């Protein structure tokens, strides 16, 4: 009888340990799933940040090009205005000679 009682206690103890191990396994699986979801979200954020960086670099290049073209246009306008001033002086000088 003692042997049977000891065997019952051993079985009960092993069942408790099994339940505790299963619960620990389930908690660990949930933590792993949560960590994997977080990692996936971070990868998506990284991809989005890379796309934004590429877009920003493209916009910067386009802006630099536009500023360069604008600067060239302003220089050309200044040259033309100077040419107009010179032509007016020549015209007025010719009027005075006559």
The percentage helix is over 70%
Q: Give average pLDDT, whole number.
A: 95
Order of helices and strands: H
Question: Which value, in Å, is the CA radius of gyration?
Answer: 42 Å
Secondary structure tally, helices = 1
Number of strands: 0
Principal-axes geometry comes out as: rod-shaped
* Low-pLDDT ranges: none
Give me the secondary-structure category: mainly alpha
Biggest sheet statistics: none
Span from first to last CA?
Answer: 144 Å
* Estimated share of beta-strand residues: under 5%
What does this structure look like?
With 98 residues, this protein is mostly helical. It has one helix at residues 2-97. The N and C termini lie far apart (144 Å).
Features:
98 residues, mainly alpha, 1 helix
Provide a brief overview of the structure.
The chain is rod-shaped, with a radius of gyration of 42 Å.
Topology of helices and strands:
Elements lengths: L1 H96 L1
């Amino acid at each position: 009888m003692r042997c049977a009682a000891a065997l019952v206690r051993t079985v009960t103890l092993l069942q408790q340990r099994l339940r505790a191990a299963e619960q620990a396994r389930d908690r660990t699986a949930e933590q792993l799933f949560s960590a994997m979801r977080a990692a996936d979200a971070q990868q998506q954020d990284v991809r989005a940040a890379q796309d934004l960086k590429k877009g920003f670099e493209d916009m910067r290049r386009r802006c630099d090009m536009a500023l360069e073209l604008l600067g060239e246009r302003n220089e050309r306008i200044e040259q033309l205005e100077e040419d107009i001033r010179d032509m007016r002086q020549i015209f007025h000088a010719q009027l005075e000679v006559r």
